[in-house]
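Let's sit down with a protein and look at its sequence and fold side by side. Please make up or recall a protein chain and show it to me in full. Label the sequence line and the structure token line clearly, so we can match residues to local backbone shapes. Go ahead whenever you are ready, and we will take it from there.
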Amino acid sequence: MSAAEPTPPYPSIIVDDAHLMLKRADGAEGKSYEIPPADGLVIDVGSYHFQIPPQLKVDAPNSVNVIIGKDRQYLAHWEPKGGKEVLNQAALTPIGKAPPFDGFHAGDTIVIGIGFSGIHDSNLSFSVIWVSMAKVK
């Protein structure tokens, strides 16, 4: 999505440390986001700097996992344009036997993990760099 392209009419979340749910140096717990039901979500990276563990030996995230319960798991490439990544049916690929993505519905609890995906021993692996949760109200 370039600066000339309009942002889709989806709710947005801003990536920040306040919502980070990995173990934090300050011991604080991350806050959950709240979003309305929608067909997609915009993740706004802004100027956030990801703290990438050196053992990953990567420069930046390359994927985002979206988990909505144990039966709805999805993966998308992480290529934010203009600092924003759009997650919708076109972007989210079902993992395993998940149905095609059909939106975020009232009552859903969503886990959003930004990280690095790769193939290891013929299996897809995902290393989390940033993770949070959103509740759909």
User: Anything to note?
Assistant: The chain has no helices and nine strands. Strands lie at 12-14, 33-35, 41-44, 63-68, 72-77, 84-87, 93-94, 109-120, 123-136.
